[in-house]
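User: Some background: our group keeps a shared notebook of sequences we're curious about, and every so often someone picks one and asks for a predicted structure to add to the entry. Today it's my turn. The entry only has the sequence so far, pasted here. Could you supply the structure so I can complete it?
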Amino acid sequence: MAEVINMPRLSDTMEEGTVAAWLKKVGDKVEEGDILAEIETDKATMEFESFNEGTLLHIGIQEGESAKVDSLLAIIGEEGEDISALLSGGTVDDTSSAVDESEESLTSSETEASAAVDLPEDVIVVTMPRLSDTMEEGTVATWLKKVGEEVEEGDILAEIETDKATMEFESFQSGTLLHIGLQEGESAKVDALLAIIGPTGTDVSAVASNFKVGAAESKPEAKPEPKVEAPKVEVKAPVASPTAAVIKPVAASNANGRVIASPLAKKMAEEKGINLSQVPGTGENGRIIKRDIENYTPATQGVSVGKFVPTGVEDFDEVPNSNMRKAIAKNLAKSKFTAPHYYLNVEFDMDNAIAFRAQYNSIPDTKISFNDMIVKACALALKQHPQVNSQWFDDRMKLNNHVHIGVAVAVPDGLVVPVVKFANEQSLTQIGAAVKDYAGKARNKKLTLDEMEGSTFTISNLGMFGIESFTSIINQPNSAILSVGAIVSKPVVKNGQVVPGNTMKLTMACDHRTVDGATGAQFLQTLKGYIENPVTMLV
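Assistant: Of course. Here's the predicted structure to add to the notebook entry:
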């Protein structure tokens, strides 16, 4: 019977592969262990060997073509065997239809199961709330109530970690906390069971046991998702062949003690004088393949004097990604790969800025930072260059007349961007107080959503860490972000003379869809005027 060979997953991050070369052609005989093709993954080009014997009847992906993991790669069977049923869409459609019917049945059963459990009188099911517009799941950071305690309307039930911040979640009901659905540190999708509140002594075990994640949408707890691969033919049934090269070191022998290795691996081991029984196999079912021989390091026994022997032990810790870290990864990846970034680099003379700050801070109860001065200068420059203060949408461009400056703040879980609103209308002292307040809230995870939304331009400053220059990824939907480096003392040329000076490098990343090069350069010239002559910010 013909066997369908799908595109294998040859690395843990591989999502699609490209056929670099076919080492067999249609009609060729294939033995178990023969190299079928060279597959280019996201990490390397690897040999993919056959785990079946027969004749190569069909090639689904030509050399140079790419396809998703599990797409039809080839079919191996008996010479002359009819494989038209495997190539036609009928099998796939029938399978998809069966999956759809199965899902329909599961959904129906789930709905009936949910309907079968009637909520006792005055019992309220509290689900995971959506605390931000982008939140998809939440993590219970802390429970402030425990089972059996009385809960009043307005009491804080728990602290929920979202993709943006850790927020207090208050109860909108009164009663006794009868059940907790998620323990501290556990995560769940929005609308999952969080808690049950009701009269003291009420039995809610049936409600808790029958409530599924997303039951509000009548979805089964784990329902199959049919894959649609177009235009590639993807056969899910009735074929089930071990086609993916699972990279998992196991013993390289079967139950009878026979060493399992590909012909190529055996030949290479013989040439190198390697004992195959000592080689861990990473192929299917522990099969030893080419890369195992290439990567094999003999054991340390019998090592001659003077030969280097590695003695270290590989070790690592795994830390689950927080919701904030996942959100940062998702948003920055989207920005980097959707907005055409380009970068403008400038270097400003900071002598006047240093003198201005010293004089300004000599006023009693007044203290501003260089970052506060940059926020104010940017706000004033943005009013003169609204194109830089813009946002891109597929069908329009939004030129903002207000200036809300986002200031990136590092926190243990990643990065948050509180927003100084109407920054152009605020004094340097007001900006300094606002930034200091936001930074404190950010580190204590007390920022509200309103304090983190609505920025029209962003500033990221790593100067305090001694970084002289760097580039940042645009904080969408903004059109630009300014990266601020450290103030550096060095020789500079003034009036034809080399004299001691202080300079600061800045890099602005721009979205080319909204900000042209000349526009960005003009904005930086205006900014230079304010930074190098800060007294003009007070006029």
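Suggested note for the entry: The chain has ten helices and 26 strands. The domain at 121-202 is CATH 2.40.50.100 (OB fold (Dihydrolipoamide Acetyltransferase, E2P)).
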